[in-house]
Design goal:
Layout lengths: L14 H10 L14 E10 L7 E10 L4 E6 L8 H24 L2 E5 L11 H8 L58 E2 L3 H11 L3 E7 L4 H4 L4 H6 L3 E10 L12 H15 L3 E2 L2 H4 L13 E7 L5 H12 L6 E6 L11 H6 L3 E6 L6 H12 L4 E4 L10 H5 L11 H6 L13 E5 L18 E2 L14 E7 L6 E9 L4 E6 L4 H4 L2 H15 L8
Parallel strand pairs: 3-4, 3-6, 4-5, 6-7, 7-8, 9-10, 9-11, 11-12, 12-17
Antiparallel strand pairs: 1-2, 13-14, 13-15, 15-16, 16-17
Helix pairs in contact: 3-4
Length: 536
């Protein structure tokens, strides 16, 4: 089998220089170093609170590593993967990775290329011979075995990759099509090529390497398990970091925990930060912003909160922290100014990039530019999720209306015009409302995983019916002696058919109810166009 020409993989004209370097100075493994001081890497770890409570905090700490004591291991950046999506993501990541490798070389960092199962392709490379001929070092642990999940050190991974992790539809047929490392990554004269744990350890010991940066694919598989990668290097006593923006996972987003592919990668990175080593980004070596895949478009959720009764200034942010962030949704909370309750500082800017607006406002009259921003957001066809008092969010009482300054605005028709509702007061507090599915709605996706037989409404039941003809009721609530009222529905608003969901639930005790939390989660994911987790 032929292999790529050296000139397609390295800096032109340096093959002979690299061979002479090997013949003349075989112990000099750090190559093209230039003065520049220590590498300063911004390490991010996760530390569990005392007592192992399950609460983790992000801890950031600068790491100062001597370049000549540092190596980068490039894990399995193959020319082709059996999964089409994985192949495309490697190709997208590779140019940035090559820039990192070039920058690291100029600082004196050793580069180890480790494209597993492709060593025949590199049999004649001096960089390959360098690894094969490095003096044997005595390792403290086994160095040639795959390092499986260490149950004494870590729990199971947070994603289900048991199907191989292909996120394509239909899934690709598995196999081993790789033949080399992707050609985008240059192999310089002083680099090393090996997929053998003992060889890599020998090279690191010969060069006096104490620090290892791991990048490549896939974080849940080879990046953790290969004998030259994270678990192995930590076991060998090396200081290890993962370059988290230059990695990927084999994860099928249609499996547990049912998040986007990129959110799945985040969860594996968090696992590594908790149980194995810190992570850094490529910006530490080449500046600028960390690398992002073009398809990694995280939905942005803006929560607009301004009410005095139901404590959603506490319950909604807590809900977002527990349910949304780890699923890959970016959440911005915009709260009323406590000294000027009609004002929502930062709302206009937040709505410019919002994908979902979650509204919990009661009888506020915002500055005209803020309410105009809400109108423009909806007119653009972007979705809204309203809870509880959102049905009278911008409708002032008669006394407040008379005293409203001209600089503030109202939208009294917001409920019928946007939500499609008909709020006209509520029943007294006290009796819980039994929640049932509206006729024909039991199979609606927003009710997925909501156990209606366990669902009640804890706040006073709103009078919201009858709804607009184009609203789709999902749930009704009923209390003894009174007609049932719609408590959750969907609607399409305006010429651009903005997705609208509203529920009159949202009492603090509702947020303690798993059924309400699942309903609200489903509604936000539905509004954002994200997949919903299946029923448990």
């Amino acid at each position: 089998m032929s292999h790529p020409k050296f000139t397609s993989r390295r800096l032109p004209g340096l093959m002979l220089a690299g061979l002479l370097l090997w013949l003349v100075a075989p112990g000099l493994l750090t190559g093209l170093a230039v003065p520049g001081g220590d590498l300063v890497l911004h390490g991010r770890s996760r530390v569990e609170s005392a007592g192992q409570t399950g609460q983790w905090s992000v801890v950031e700490k600068d790491l100062r590593w001597a370049p000549k004591q540092t190596a980068i291991v490039v894990c399995d950046m193959w020319d082709r993967h059996w999964c089409k999506g994985a192949t495309e993501r490697v190709a997208e990541m590779a140019p940035r990775m090559n820039e990192v490798l070039k920058a690291a070389r100029t600082r004196g960092v050793l580069i180890v290329h480790a494209p597993s199962e492709t060593m025949k392709n590199y049999a004649d490379y001096p960089q390959r011979k360098r690894a094969e001929q490095a003096p044997q070092a005595t390792a403290p642990t086994s160095v040639n075995q795959w390092k499986s999940l260490n149950q004494a050190k870590e729990p199971p991974l947070p994603i289900d990759d048991s199907d191989g992790g292909c996120d394509d539809q239909p899934q690709c047929a598995q196999g081993m099509p790789w033949r080399s490392e992707i050609a985008t990554l240059e192999i310089a004269p002083a680099d090393v090529i090996s997929d053998n744990g003992a060889e890599v350890y020998n090279v690191l010991q010969q060069a006096g390497i104490e620090n290892v940066i791991v990048m490549g694919v896939h974080a849940n598989m080879c990046v953790l398990g290969r004998p030259f990668s994270i678990r192995a290097m930590v076991g060998l006593g090396k200081h290890v970091v993962l370059m988290r923006d230059l990695t990927d996972t084999m994860y099928n987003s249609r499996r547990r925990p049912y998040v986007s592919h990129f959110a799945g990668t985040d969860l594996v990175v968090e696992h590594i930060e908790k149980y194995w080593c810190p992570s850094i980004t490529s910006a530490d070596l080449v500046g600028g912003e960390p690398f992002h895949f073009q398809a990694d478009r995280r939905p942005s959720v803006v929560m607009m909160i301004g009410e005095d009764e139901y404590h959603t200034w506490e319950t909604l942010p807590a809900f977002a922290k527990k349910e949304l962030g780890w699923r890959g949704l970016n959440v911005t909370v915009v709260q009323e100014d406590k000294t000027a309750k009609n004002d929502f500082p930062g709302l206009v800017e937040a709505l410019r990039g919002a994908d979902v607006l979650v509204l919990s406002v009661r009888r506020r009259s915002p500055p005209r530019k803020e309410l105009d921003a809400v109108r423009a957001y909806l007119a653009a066809g972007r979705p809204l999720v309203g809870i509880r008092t959102a049905c009278h969010a911008f409708a002032l009482g008669a006394g407040d209306r008379r005293n409203r300054p001209a600089t503030l605005a109202e939208w009294p028709e917001f409920d019928p015009e946007v939500l499609g509702g008909n709020y006209h007061g509520h029943y007294g507090a006290g009796p819980v409302a039994k929640i049932v599915a509206a006729p024909g709605s039991a199979e609606d996706s927003i009710l997925t995983g909501v156990k209606l037989e366990q669902f009640v409404g804890h706040g006073s039941l709103y009078r919201c019916g009858p709804l607009k003809a184009d609203a789709k009721p999902l749930l009704f609530g009923a209390i003894a002696g009174e007609p049932a009222e719609p408590v959750a529905w969907t609607r399409a608003f305006g010429p651009k058919q903005a997705r609208i969901f509203y529920t009159s639930l949202g009492h603090p005790d509702d947020f303690a109810d798993p059924q309400f939390r699942r309903l609200l989660l489903n509604a936000i994911l539905w509004a954002a166009g994200q997949p919903l987790p299946p029923a448990e």
